[in-house]
Design a protein that fits this description.
Elements lengths: L16 E5 L2 E4 L6 E4 L2 H4 L8 H13 L10 H14 L3 E5 L2 H18 L7 E5 L8 H6 L3 H4 L9 E4 L4 H9 L6 E6 L2 E2 L5 E2 L2 H14 L2 E5 L23 E4 L10 E5 L20 H16 L2 H20 L5 E7 L2 E6 L6 H7 L2 E2 L1 E3 L3 E4 L7 H19 L1
Parallel strand pairs: 3-15, 5-6, 5-7, 7-10, 10-11
Antiparallel strand pairs: 1-2, 2-3, 4-12, 8-9, 11-12, 13-14, 14-17, 16-17
The structure holds pyridoxal-5'-phosphate.
Length: 396
């Protein structure tokens, strides 16, 4: 490979894609080799590639205006905020450009909320084992992965980490010395990078109750599991709860960078001008792409699709792999699925590419599937067939 001028932040696979169509990618090397995409740019390309509504919207918007500034009113931003509140039942939105930025906004809201409640000294935010919240100085501290933190000491020390999906761990905190310092609990209702672990509905409901009793904010990081991926707009909706803060990004505009931090109840009206902001956040291009993405999800019934196609993939894979030695299990929800093996399996990604399949491995042993929400039954059948064979070959 020729010398790269890029910083060495990714162990990149030696392949680049030149274009895509629907749920397929085409590489630039072998002139047209086709790959079924079961990753969607890590849960980003909600509508797959070259979606006509998205292409038209972005092109028309580009011809009008790409960016103005948050110094001025941005009607598309207002419209998107209203739509997001409508589908989430939240009340206010702050727009940014990525998942970590949405989480930074959530963390700042929680700290501000502490101030409002007289907790101006020590403040603590409770986070979970296996969590991933980003790589900024605050969000890397909230993230449970030692590799993400290593070398960036001193690590921000206002996070308390507890086991995920374990209500007794939260109950213990209510008796602990930190009880009065805690301002919020932050979690992914369906953990992604950490290995596809789902919070039970009863757990989320009890957590909601405890947060209410203790006056702690409940923050749901839906950067990966939100935007329809689990068959509802947001994963927390499966548990019939309403968080105080919800963060999202990735799939929101189907590939155009945008993030959002949504607030309700006690988390509203905490910021005033000057407290928070970002230059690009919610610009006309990104907000038009997000509105187009939402309208296609609604018009094409993609929430239903995510649920049904996801169930099909999960059931078929579980059936095909039930007796295969080395497969620990298949889990997840909608189109956010994980197949856990009993060994490291990073290499299977390369084998997948050879067979024309784009998949991912997270947490060393978990094959992760995050296909576009437009995935069809034919796409799902092809994925199940290819992946079953791939896993069997890999484990031989
Ligand atoms: N939160 C979750 C749950 C994520 O999965 C990610 C990224 O994978 C982030 C936050 C960070 O998002 P970004 O990479 O856009 O900063």
């Amino acid at each position: 490979m020729t010398t790269s001028y890029l910083m060495n932040t990714y162990a990149r696979l030696p392949i680049s894609f030149s274009h895509g169509e629907g749920c397929y990618l085409f590489d630039s090397e072998t002139n047209g080799k086709k790959y079924l995409d079961a990753l969607a740019g890590i849960a980003v390309n909600t509508l797959g590639y070259k979606h006509p509504v998205l292409v038209k919207t972005i092109s028309e918007q580009a011809a009008k205006i790409l960016h103005t500034s948050n110094l001025f009113e941005i009607p598309l931003q207002e419209k998107l905020a209203e739509k997001l509140c409508q589908i989430s039942n939240m009340q206010q939105v702050f727009f940014c450009n990525s998942g970590l930025e949405a989480n930074e906004a959530a963390i700042k809201l929680a700290l501000m909320y502490g101030n409002k409640n007289g907790k101006t000294g020590k403040k603590k935010i409770v986070v979970m084992e296996h969590s991933f919240h980003g790589r900024s100085i605050a969000t890397l501290a909230a993230t449970a992965n030692a590799k993400v933190q290593k070398g960036f000491e001193p690590i921000v020390d206002f996070f308390i980490r507890i086991p995920f999906n374990d209500i007794s761990a939260i109950q213990k905190l209510c008796e602990s010395e930190h009880k009065d310092e805690i301002v919020a609990v932050m979690l992914e209702p369906l953990q992604g990078e950490g290995g596809i672990y789902l919070a039970d509905s009863e757990y989320l409901q009890q957590l909601r109750k405890i947060c209410d009793q203790q006056k702690w904010l409940l923050i749901c990081d839906e950067v990966q599991c939100g935007m329809g991926r689990t068959g509802k707009w947001f994963a927390f909706q499966h548990a019939n709860i309403l968080p105080d803060v919800v963060t999202m990004a990735k799939g929101l505009a189907s590939g155009v960078p945008i993030g959002a931090c949504l607030a309700s109840g006690n988390a509203t009206n905490l910021f005033a001008p000057g407290n928070h902001g970002t230059t690009f956040g919610g610009n006309p291009l990104a907000t038009s792409a997000a509105l187009a993405t939402i309208s296609v999800i609604e018009n094409d019934n993609l929430l239903n699709n995510a649920q049904q196609i996801g169930d099909f993939i999960k059931t078929e894979l579980a059936k095909n792999l039930a007796t295969v030695d080395g497969v620990v299990g298949v889990r997840g929800y909608g189109l956010m699925l994980g197949i856990e093996l009993d060994r490291s399996c990073g290499e299977i990604v390369k084998l997948g590419l050879q067979k024309g399949l784009v998949i991912n491995v997270t947490s060393d042993k978990i094959i992760r599937l995050l296909p576009p929400l437009i995935f069809s039954k034919d796409n799902a059948t092809e994925l199940v067939e290819k992946l079953t064979q791939l896993i069997k070959d890999f484990l031989q």
